[in-house]
Each structure stands twice: as C-alpha cells, then as structure tokens.
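Batch manifest, entry 17 of 40.
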Amino acid sequence: MEKREKIAEKKTMNLQLVLGNPKIGCDGYGICKFITKHDTLFETCAHKDQIVDATISIEDYTMTFVFDKNKMSTPVYERYYSKGVFIIETPIQLPDVLIAYFEIPPSVLGRGKYGIEENEFDLIVKSGVLLFCKTISFQYKTSNA
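Output type: structure tokens
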C-alpha cells in the first residue's frame, strides 16, 4: 500500500472588520481595522455601523474574505458590495495576530478593486497576492575625526 501525504486542512479565522479607509478616519473604502478575539470590544466604535463579520483564509499568499450576507445591513451591502467589486483605497498592514496564526511574513494587503463572487449566503472576495514588508536596516559610516 502506498503512503499518502496528509493534506493540510486550510486554516481560517473568524473576525470582524471595520470597513473604510484608515487614512481618512474610516471614511471611504477599504479595511480600516481588523478586529480579532484578542482585541478589546469594538461595540462603542464611532463606526460600529461599518463593522462586518468575516472569515478569512490565506492560500498561496492570496487572502480570501467570506462575508455572511445575512449578518450585514442593507446600507453596508449597498455601499461596499453592490457594485461587484470590493475597493481597498489604502494598503493595510496585516496585524501581528494574523501573521502569527497564518505563519506568513509581515504582509500588506494592497490597494485595488477586487471582484466579488456572490451566492445566496455569502460574498467572497479574493484579495490578490499579499505584499511582504521587508525590514530595511541602514549602516552609517562615521568618520574618525
């Protein structure tokens, strides 16, 4: 009998997102903040009407978001999803908890317009390839005067 490699189960994380552009106080389009179970409650957030539930996964360095339509208000759906694209105006750094959980290098979700697949229950957005942040160090020469 041949040995078969164990197929790794795809990791997912349930979290909440505050939609909007972080550079302009969560107005505009994009992801203003990732809210994980490690964060303090965001119920009192000034933008609580822009909070959505999401399940994310990362495969081949492509982040996929699954949004539950049944948990989404009509105004949120109409503003952020009804045009068939999910817009991210400003790149956003993935929080450390996601980096650790998915075991990836520090990464940024790039700006762009990402297509939305829609079915009866969910909105599915594939973000494209994550951009890796590189730590840059500088070495300065000093003169011996």
